[in-house]
Amino acid sequence: MSSNKLKILVPVKRVIDYAIKPRINKQNTGIESKGVKFSINPFCDIALEESLKIREANKDLVESIHTVSIGPLKAQDVLRTTLAKGADKSTLIQIKDDEEVEPLQVGKILKSIIEKNDYNLIILGKQSIDDDSNQTGQILGGLLNWSQATNASKVKINTDNTVEVTREIDGGEDVLKSKLPLIITTDLRLNEPRYASLPNIMKAKKKPLEKLTPKDLGIEIENRLQILKIEEPPKRQAGIKVENVDQLVEKLKQVKAL
């Protein structure tokens, strides 16, 4: 692949930190976001880590790693983290604080950025932990008419201009092989993301962080979905342990499950 440099784009999303239990707001229209810690979406972090690993294993092959996030101005903190971890540059597509961008609109924005900058490998998380849509990678593949490999648990760059992606499936593994350009979405077991060191966090402040708006890309945010109401799931009763099969059968009879 020496004749074809890899230009990698890694979309990342700012979400409520995975260690925090989300709370529904008083209006029952969404998740409370005031006074809550935000961080990079875990699946996006895995996507970034994989792009860095690809560069470390193929130093002469990767031309650049570019991270992009669609979010409010505060989302630039997430981008600074990606720069501290090793990304070369970043772009914030700035939207309003309370504005929601659905996967189709995300796909259109990413398509515009990809075509303007001639990227040939897109690595992104399979889903974000806030809406769990698991749609952006697939939609982007359809918009660009590119090959895609979803739910990657292993990525291998070959010397013949191809990429092999291993996916976990029921009872085994599924290995896909594709030429560039390619879209890869990452699963949890692909890698373990690194931490950003303090010196690299300081250096990241000097790396380029571009700010654009959807209108700069000729795109209007149009939502097709409306949230009517969000409710807590009903509380479940605690389970019990039984000592043997006879006790299990007796309990099942008591609740008329047998």
From TrEMBL:
The keyword Magnesium does not apply. The keyword Transmembrane does not apply. Keywords: Electron transport, Mitochondrion, Transport. SUPFAM superfamilies: Adenine nucleotide alpha hydrolases-like (SSF52402). Its cofactor is AMP; FAD. One of its GO terms (cellular component) is mitochondrial matrix. This is Probable electron transfer flavoprotein subunit beta. It comes from Candida verbasci.
